[in-house]
Amino acid sequence: MDIDNSNGGKYDFWNTDRKNPYKYYYKNFLDTTYIEPDNFDLAINYYQKALKLSKNKEQRARVLFQMASAEQGKYYQYEAKNTSQISYSDPQYSEKEQAHQAELDNIRNQKYRTYFAQLKSQYADTETMKGLAGSCSYFGYFLRK
Question: Which CA distances in Å does 115 have to 4, 7, 11, 84, 125?
Answer without folding.
Answer: 43, 44, 38, 27, 16
